[in-house]
Design goal:
Helix content: 55-70%
Strand content: under 5%
Radius of gyration: 21 Å
Number of helices: 10
Order of helices and strands: HHHHHHHHHH
Largest sheet: none
Number of strands: 0
Shape: globular
Distance between the termini: 29 Å
């Protein structure tokens, strides 16, 4: 470990480039999670509904999880060969079109890979190799996946929010980011804060302003950042979400009654607070 630390200090540029490559590879896997996890959850919910209705389950259902089947074209279902699955570079080589059928490749794939690589490099620029850096990478990866899934489906799966919460408490057992007491209070306060706001709004308007996934996400952020960071997270999330919604509704002339995914803005607030705590701004 000491040899690797010495290498990162002696060759910082090579280290950051390596981290960028790692981030792009991780981003490629995050794209798999973003696409497949909602499908897996929907399939499970359908099976549970059929069981409750005493209906027969479909037979010979092909295996579908985060590892199998291998990546394939969403349009023609042709398997994607290895040379067309290189993070970032394949999108450029193929000019944004699938080799098999010419279908457009969503910009989401390279953007997620680029965002992951950039965030990994930012963290590595201010933190030495060690547990805190690993923790920040995990934190940023989870939030990126949650933000994109919520934008696409308006879901914040328990399969992501709850592990994020427990991993945050684990890292703070030794106070890598905040004391364990502050992290525990942060998890409780994060959940109760949005839970209380949800019920106050529901009693006043008989409408749902938030989802339970938002409560769990803020609880997870509290477990990582501590209760003292929660006001900053909520203020930043609410401000950015409000401005974006106003601009979007005015430009597209959509109704203000349409639901808004709040998870991406909570994730943005969490990322911003984490990076500010690392003094990333000091790089400039």
């Amino acid at each position: 470990m000491s040899l690797l630390l010495n290498f990162t200090e002696a060759f910082p540029l090579i280290w950051l480039c390596s981290v960028g490559g790692l981030g792009a590879i991780v981003g490629s896997f995050l794209n798999v999670v973003i696409y497949r996890l909602p499908v897996m959850l929907e399939t499970r919910w359908q099976r549970e509904a059929l069981l409750q209705l005493a209906q027969p389950l479909p037979e010979n259902t092909p295996r579908f999880n985060l590892l199998l089947p291998h990546s394939c074209c969403p349009r023609c279902q042709q398997p994607i060969v290895a040379r067309d699955n290189v993070p970032l570079l394949s999108f450029l080589w193929l000019k944004g079109k699938a080799r098999c059928c010419g279908a457009r490749i969503s910009w989401r794939y390279p953007l997620v890979e680029l965002a992951t690589a950039s965030l990994f490099m930012l963290a590595a620029a201010v933190l030495p190799l060690g547990m805190p850096l690993m923790g920040v990478w995990i934190f940023l990866s989870f939030l990126l996946v949650l933000a994109v899934i919520d934008l696409r489906t308006q879901l914040l799966p328990d399969a992501l929010t709850l592990p994020l919460l427990w991993i945050g408490l684990f890292f703070n057992l030794q106070g890598h980011f905040v004391d364990l007491e502050e992290a525990t209070v942060g998890a409780m306060a994060g959940y109760l804060c949005l839970w209380a706001l949800f019920w106050l709004f529901k009693l006043a308007t008989e409408k749902d302003a938030l989802g339970y996934g938002d409560f769990k996400l803020l609880a997870a952020l509290g477990a990582w950042l501590g209760w003292q960071a929660l006001p900053q997270v909520v203020l930043l999330a609410a401000s950015c979400g409000l401005v974006f919604t106003l601009v979007q509704r005015v430009v597209t002339r959509k109704s203000f009654d349409q639901p808004l995914a709040f998870g991406p803005w909570l994730a943005l607030g969490g990322v911003a607070c984490m990076l500010m705590s690392l003094n990333v701004v000091g790089l400039w």
